[in-house]
Design brief:
globular, 359 residues
Length: 359
């Protein structure tokens, strides 16, 4: 990584869960193994993946009651928590954020690159009532990074719409090696459709369950979240909850499913890439980043409305799809590709920044 600063810090909204953003952080850790990880709140028992970092440095908010698991009860303090950090000892800071981490304050001479997962979701794409007062701060904070990267063209468009700023798209890395299709697999499947993800409102698991309740088709849902109890009560017997699964269990779920189903808008959708690595076709509403991953009619089926998706599920035939060909498309989103693209763009942006500031 010639001409890229090594004295780097990483910043992330909160370290208390596992998901696609956390895969990005681990990929960045491989590029910058000495970089500490700054965050508003940290719970390493809930996020053991973060133990690989040389330091995980939470803000003062970490000492507040319930903040580690329910940071959202302190919405007015999270911006202050990020502003309180001192990054003057670093040449560059990389923030990975879908909320407040972009609002860190850096001095001239410290390059701030924001890898944006999406502009703050609860202020824009899924606004939460009573939090509008934070939008003013968020607009100010959006000007603090020196440059933006976006995880998808969907997010790139949002950055332009909500912040009026340009960005470069670098798709995030997926764990395709863990789930890659093997032509020695038995082609026998268990006649179920699959969904994977956190059971939270913006992912619309309630809408998915209602759809399968009405269709009377078997569905397996892998993942946990705050909506789980309510979702279990509303689900018909042919909807099964697998809970929090290991990579090995998830591999088996991908391997034996008929197809992967989604009814919500993803910012990008690493789970789609994982499913495709296993040779599984995606059936989804054509919203968000899925169109950057799935080719309609070849690696999945995309629809504009729920009724068309429901009809496709009822008539679905896995034999129409070439599973090895689907798996081959996932290589576009490998970790090696991410490292190469990120290093090149970072080097270009860093060079431009050095031409402005003399160290």
């Amino acid at each position: 990584m010639a001409d890229i600063p090594t004295n780097v810090a990483l910043v992330y909204d909160r370290v208390n869960k596992w998901g696609g953003a956390e895969q990005v952080l681990l990929a960045l850790h491989e590029m910058f193994p000495q970089a500490p990880l700054y965050t508003a709140v940290s719970d390493l028992r809930a996020a053991p993946w973060a133990q690989v970092f040389p330091q995980v440095i939470p803000s003062f908010l970490n000492r507040f009651p319930w903040a580690k698991s329910a940071h959202e009860i302190y919405p007015w303090l999270t911006p202050l928590a990020f502003e309180a950090f001192d990054f003057s000892a670093f040449d560059a800071v990389i923030s990975v954020t879908s909320a407040d981490a972009k609002g860190i304050v850096t001095k001239p001479g410290t390059f701030h690159l924001c890898y944006c997962l999406t502009p703050t979701r609860y202020l824009y794409s899924h606004p939460v009532p009573l939090l509008g007062f934070l939008k003013t701060w968020d607009q100010i904070a959006s000007r603090r990074p020196d440059a933006y990267l976006a995880i998808s063209r969907t997010v790139q468009s949002r950055i332009k719409t909500y912040y009026g700023l340009d960005s470069t798209v670098i798709h995030p890395p997926a764990n395709i090696e863990k789930f890659m299709f093997n032509d020695k697999w038995s082609m026998v499947n268990d006649k179920y459709f699959l969904s994977v993800g956190r059971l939270v409102y913006h992912k619309r698991p309630d809408l998915l369950i209602k759809l399968f309740n009405d269709l009377k088709l078997p569905l397996v849902i892998a993942g946990t979240g705050r909506m789980e109890s309510r979702l279990r009560r509303m689900a018909a017997p042919h909807v099964r909850f697998a809970g929090l699964v290991s990579d090995r269990e998830l591999q088996q779920l991908y391997r034996h499913a008929l197809g992967y189903v989604s009814v919500h808008e993803e910012d990008f959708g690493l789970v789609y890439v994982e499913a495709q690595a296993a040779g599984l076709p995606i059936l989804a509403l054509n919203h968000g980043g899925v169109g950057e991953i799935v080719t309609h009619g070849q690696t999945g089926l995309l629809f504009d409305d729920l009724s068309d998706l429901g009809q496709a599920l009822q008539a679905f035939d896995l034999a129409r799809f070439d599973r090895p060909a689907i798996a081959a498309t996932a290589a576009r989103f490998s970790k090696e590709r991410f490292h190469q693209e990120f290093a090149k763009v970072f080097q270009d942006l860093w060079t431009k920044y050095k031409n402005i500031y003399t160290f």
